[in-house]
Amino acid sequence: MARRPADDAHRPGPRRSGDAAPTPRAWAARILALRTKEERQQALAEVPAELRELVKKHVEIAWNHPARRNKP
User: Where are the compositionally biased (Basic and acidic residues) regions (predicted)?
Assistant: First the structure.
């Protein structure tokens, strides 16, 4: 089945390594993996402006999730 490049660009799902920029959740995962608050703030500033608020929301939700408190 042939892919329609313009139509499926907005759809969520796995991305291949050669595809477009990282998804907002991928940005958030990278930010959450950083150790210090300063590093996380700097990384958030590097997120494209049109995605920044969404990425920030993903980070806040993950950071405040109850399951995070159970990690050693």
Answer: 1-11
- Domain assignment of residue 41, given as a range: 24-67
- Over residues 2-12, the mean pLDDT reads 50
Residue 15 pLDDT > 70: no
11 in a domain, yes or no?
A: no
Quote the CA–CA distance of 55 and 48 in Å, as a whole number: 10
Number of domains in the chain: 1
Give domain status of residue 42, yes or no.
yes
Q: What is the pLDDT of residue 44?
A: 97
Q: Following DSSP, what letter does each residue of 16-63 receive, concatenated? A: -TTSSSPPHHHHHHHHHT-SSHHHHHHHHHTS-HHHHHHHHHHHHHHH
Location of structure tokens 């939700």: 61
In a domain, 49, yes or no: yes
